[in-house]
Amino acid sequence: MDIPSKQWAQVIEKPATDVIYKQIPVQHPGPDEVLVNIKYSGVCHTDLHAMKGDWPLKSKSPLVGGHEGAGVVVSKGNLVTEIDIGDLAGVKWLNGSCLTCEFCRQSDEPLCPTALLSGYTVDGTFQQYCVAKAKHVSKLPKETPLDTVAPILCAGITVYKGLKESGARAGQTVAIVGAGGGLGSLAQQYAKAMGLRVIAIDSGEDKRKECQEMGAEVFIDFRKSRDLDLVNAVKAATSDRLGPHAVLLLAASELPFQQATSYVRPHGTIVAIGMPAHAYLKAPVFNTVVRMINIKGSYVGNRQDGYEAIDFFTRGLIHAPVKVVPLSDLGEVYKLMEQEEIVGRYVLKMPQG
Description:
This protein is of the alpha/beta class. The protein is built from 11 helices and 18 strands. It has 2 domains: about 5-155 and about 300-350, Alpha-Beta Complex (Quinone Oxidoreductase, Chain A, domain 1), CATH 3.90.180; about 155-295, Rossmann fold. The strands form 4 sheets. Strands 3, 5, 6, 9, 10, 17 and 18 form a 7-stranded mixed beta sheet that branches. A 6-stranded parallel beta sheet has the order 13-12-11-14-15-16, sandwiched between helices. Helix 4 (about 155-165) crosses helix 5 (about 180-195) and helix 4 (about 155-165) crosses helix 10 (about 305-315). The longest helix is centred in the middle third of the chain and has 12 residues, at about 155-165. The N and C termini lie close together (about 10 Å).
C-alpha cells in the first residue's frame, strides 16, 4: 500500500496539557523496526496519567500517547525476519528492550533499564502509523478482530500476568478491586478461564450488572460499605470466611491498597497493578508477618505472557467489552475517565486513508 507522508494523531504538545488532534509526519522504521498502520487503539488509564504528567518518569515531548494498537504491518527494516508486510500486529506498552541485559535474558523484559515505552518514552498508537521494535510487536492470527483485540494488548496482558503472579490455583478465590473497569472486566474473564472464583469489588448498579455477566460469584459495592463492613463482606463471600486467596488491586485511588491486608486470607497474595498518582502501599507489620501475607507489584508482561493472553482471546475465552469512537474523540474519553464514568473499555478507530 502507499504510505502517506502525513497522518492524523492526538498529540500532547507539552507535559500536563490536553491532547491536540492534528496532522504530523509519518515516521520510517529503522533496521529492526516495523511500521504498523494502526486500525484501532484502546484507551488505558495509563494514557491519562501520561497526559497529566502524574508519574515520576520522564516522558517524550511532544508525545503521541497510546499503547494498545492493532493494525497491519506496512513497512519493515532490513533486519526484520519474524514478521512480514501484510501481517496483523499489535503494538503494546513495551515498544522495545535491549534483549541483552540480565532482565531481558531472564524474560523480564519490562524491567529492562533501557526499555522503550509506547505512548510515554516513544510515540504510541494514537496515530494512524506507529513504529515499534519488530521483536516486541505481537503477531496476530489472521481474521483477528482488531477492535476487540486492542484492549488485550495491555489491559488483557496486564491482568493475566497479575493473576499468574498471584499464584492462585484453579478452585481458589480471587478478589478483584476495580472489577467493573476496563482492566477489571478482563481480569474477571481471565480468572474464570483459569478456573478461579471471583469476588468483584466496585460501585454502582451498572458495574454490578456487568460483573455478574462476567461471571463474578459476588459483587461488593464499596461505596455502600464502611471499612469494617467491606472487610467482613469480602471474608463472608468465601466459604470458610477466611478471605480470598489473592487480591488484584486495579483501583485508581489509594484507599483500596490500604484495605486489602485486612481481608486477604492468611498466606494470601496481594498484587498491586493499578497505579493511582502519588499513592502509597501501607500494611501493619505485625499482621503481615504473623499471617504471612505476600504483597507484590505486577507490571505488564513479557513476550510469552503476551502470546498466552492473546491465545485466550483468539480461542474465544475472553470477550473485550468495548465502545468504539473516532480518534478525534480522545479528549472526551479522558473526561469520562476523570469522572470515573467508564464501564468497560473505549477503543479509538483511526481515520481511513
